[in-house]
TrEMBL record:
Entry-linked Gene3D superfamilies: Glutaredoxin
Region forming the signal peptide: none
Biased segments, Basic and acidic residues type: 21-35
Organism for this UniProt entry: Kalanchoe fedtschenkoi
Protein EC: 1.8.1.8
Domain Thioredoxin: 51-183, 201-373
Enzyme class, UniProt record, top EC level: oxidoreductase
Name assigned to this protein: protein-disulfide reductase
Length: 443
């Protein structure tokens, strides 16, 4: 019978007769896996690694060239357990990011770190195709029991997931490795809890000292491009000081961006018209932070925008993407007149409140939320919506609602919505196109 881990509980019993200890890990059907360990902890670490990565008939992991690497050879290294699958696009996307980070980590730190792929692929061919692009090691695809036990031990509920184990005991783990790689990259090394806390404090200090100039300029550039996109059309970053500024992360290849950009253009123009009518000179500005793949795409897309932009390929773009932890586009980050971050959810606020969201502050949003609550009192408690056969009920965060994607306009929503209790269909109240219910054809 193959041994299979069923939990994380470990029992240590004192003295095996030689001054060491015996570690026992509970297994299915009462089977116990034990190993004598010396008092210096070295053998104990090997035992822990074996209990995680080896099985009764296998004491190795493999490379994508099918070379066998003994589990004991990983002792003393930081180990990343990478739970992933070829069939899931976010996994494939993160694998590219992780691969670049891994190669840099290997160049900087040599053999101090290793990653082991724990596959959730559906068949061997999918595993082989996916593993072929990975520069690290893997649990063999055929060892289903070890893969299952690792998922149980580390409570893996979603992929991609990267669990980091420290070599001191291989029990002190950091489970948000995906977040760390996306947010900090190789700067997160050695991925210890202490290093994570240091990075958080450094990040907090950066945000507290944040200014428009240190966000949008670098050693070689202190200007932005205007909407014409010509090389000589430059606007000084310093001219934006004192304004509310939106950083618009988007690209021409992004389908949701193609839908949201025209809406943002309209809102941008309405906000500035409103400010001019109220004799407010500060104004509202937006800076396009492009992730387009080439200069031609950038130039073409930028022509449709009435605001400013960072030059295509400027190194500040990557810095801003990492600094604001931008995971998806379009994304609109709002900076206040003092250069500090007001919100990273500008897109959602535009969808909810249109131009009324300006200046996007907490005080303004509290006013809008109260107004929405009052307006909701006069809304019908249910509606039939054109294009959907079921009755929709009016819900809010307090009675079954929450963040959603409107099935009519495909944009984000929060707060009040009309929701189908049968199939989960949801629309903004403003998107409702009320129709009379159709008589049932069922007998």
């Amino acid at each position: 019978m193959e041994m299979q881990l069923v939990g994380r509980e470990e029992q240590e019993t004192e003295n095996t007769g030689n001054g060491g200890r015996e570690m026992k890990i509970e297994l299915d059907e009462g089977v116990e896996k034990s190993a004598e360990v010396s008092s210096n902890g070295g053998s104990e670490n090997v035992s822990r690694l074996r209990s995680l990565l080896a099985s009764k008939d296998r004491d190795f992991v493999i490379s994508n060239a099918q070379d066998k690497v003994k589990v004991s050879d990983l002792q003393g290294k930081i180990i990343g357990l990478y739970f992933s699958a070829n069939w899931y696009p976010p996994c494939r996307n993160f694998t590219q990011t992780l691969s670049a980070a891994y190669q840099q980590l290997k160049a900087d730190h040599g053999d101090d770190i290793e990653i082991v792929f724990v596959s959730s692929d559906e068949d061997l061919n999918a595993f082989n195709d996916y593993f072929s692009i990975m520069p690290w090691l893997a649990v063999p695809y055929s060892d289903l029991e070890v893969k299952k036990s690792l998922n149980r031990i580390f409570d893996v509920e979603g992929i991609p997931c990267l669990v980091i184990l420290q070599p001191e005991s291989y029990t002190d783990e950091v489970r948000d490795g995906v977040e760390l790689i996306y947010r900090y990259g190789v700067q997160a090394f050695p991925f210890s809890k202490q290093r994570v806390e240091e990075l958080k404090q450094e990040e907090k200090a950066k945000h507290e000292s944040q200014t428009l100039m240190n966000l949008l300029t670098n050693h070689d550039r202190d200007y932005l491009l205007n909407h014409s996109g010509t090389p000589d059309a430059k606007v000084s970053v310093s001219s934006l000081i004192g304004k509310t500024v939106g950083l618009y992360f988007c690209a021409q290849w992004c389908v949701p961006g193609l839908k949201f950009t025209p809406k943002l253009v309209s809102i941008y123009q309405k906000i500035n018209q409103m400010l001019r009518e109220n004799s407010q000179d500060d104004g509202f500005e937006i800076v396009f932070v492009s992730t387009d793949r080439d200069q031609a795409s950038f130039s073409s897309y930028f022509e449709s925008m009435p605001w400013l932009a960072l030059p295509f390929g400027d190194p500040t773009i990557k810095d801003l993407t990492k600094y604001f932890d931008v995971r998806g586009i379009p994304c609109l980050v709002i900076l206040g007149p003092d250069g500090k971050t007001v919100t990273e959810h500008g897109r959602n606020l535009i969808n909810l409140y249109q131009e009324n969201a300006y200046p996007f502050t907490k005080a303004r949003l509290q006013i809008l939320e109260k107004e929405m609550e009052e307006e909701a009192k006069s809304l019908p408690k249910s509606e039939f919506h054109q294009g959907h056969r079921h009755e929709l009920k009016l819900v809010s965060e307090g009675n079954g609602g929450g963040p959603f994607i409107c099935c009519d306009c495909d944009e984000q929503g929060l707060g009040w919505a009309y929701q189908c209790m049968e199939c989960g269909y949801e629309v903004h109240p403003r998107c409702i196109r009320a129709v009379r219910p159709q008589p049932s054809t069922q007998t």
